[in-house]
């Protein structure tokens, strides 16, 4: 019987498993109800009295060894093991990649636009999303009866007509002019809100980046050159721009900026509606009345401002046809921008 016990001990000591289930098989075979140890215990009853002491000790020792060794092997082969035994690790197995998140295309484009203007010496300015009428409209030369103040465009907070969700980030520019002295160069990224029906082309919440430059002798030529620099940096060296006369209450003269269509190279396609041009932003020379309202002497200083919608710009850059995709947070859509 001593022979059998020693044999079992050697088998346990030499056992080298490769998987956790092999350890479990060993446990059942040795320590299980119908396992070898129990069988030996049964046999022990028949051992001659003078041998009982020696055999009993050997049997107890092998039981302790089996229990400890199996617990140890389970630990090293188990999924949660911190220190896998060398024999348990399959070094040829391919590694698993951790799932990494990625930036939202709106954040990517917003960051890119801010970076480009940062290279021209602009600094980022911030302001509240819940604003007062003065910073969003009055300071920016909107007459009291202007339709943009209407309930159709603006979300008011409760019944107070003075507190509202900003409809453009120009309100940040008004704040910058109040608190800074020229030269002022600020870029104002942020979320804006308009009471518009949600469709493939418009949303009631979107993002803008607006910019403002105020100094002595700032001219329309400076504005045009800055916008051209931006278009070439953002869309590529071959991008061309054109300015069309437009109207904003806070700029005079005002213009709408078009960039040559990147998809057809200006030849005309569906996206540019066969014109070869895509509208990217509004801009103009800051109206002297706005400078004065914000505490800057318009006889001494002049400035220009521009503003663009980020979703629109992202849609143009990536060929996205429906603005709603940008807000649905469908990971299958977002994963396409992982490398952006
Ligand atoms: N604030 C304008 C808008 O919301 C954009 C703009 C900014 C136009 C600055 C001209 C100058 O559409």
Summarize the structure.
The protein is of the alpha+beta class. It has helices at 2-14, 20-31, 36-44, 49-77, 105-118, 133-136, 170-179, 220-235, 288-293, 310-318, 325-328, 331-334; strands spanning 123-124, 130-132, 163-165, 184-193, 205-215, 241-248, 251-260, 277-286, 302-309.
Provide structural commentary.
This protein is α+β, with helices and mostly antiparallel strands. It has helices at 2-14, 20-31, 36-44, 49-77, 105-118, 133-136, 170-179, 220-235, 288-293, 310-318, 325-328, 331-334, and strands spanning 123-124, 130-132, 163-165, 184-193, 205-215, 241-248, 251-260, 277-286, 302-309. A seven-stranded mixed beta sheet has the order 1-4-5-9-8-7-6, with helices on both faces. It has a two-stranded antiparallel sheet with strand order 2-3. A hairpin with a 2-residue loop joins strand 6 and strand 7. The longest helix has 29 residues, at 49-77. The structure holds phenylalanine.
Notable traits:
38% helix, 340 residues, two-stranded antiparallel ribbon, 7-stranded mixed β-sheet, alpha+beta, binds phenylalanine
Which SSEs are present, and which pair or pack?
Elements: H1 2-14, H2 20-31, H3 36-44, H4 49-77, H5 105-118, E1 123-124, E2 130-132, H6 133-136, E3 163-165, H7 170-179, E4 184-193, E5 205-215, H8 220-235, E6 241-248, E7 251-260, E8 277-286, H9 288-293, E9 302-309, H10 310-318, H11 325-328, H12 331-334
Parallel strand pairs: 1-4
Antiparallel strand pairs: 2-3, 4-5, 5-9, 6-7, 7-8, 8-9
This protein binds phenylalanine (PHE).
Phenylalanine binds at residues 168, 170, 210, 248, 251, 282-284, 305-307.
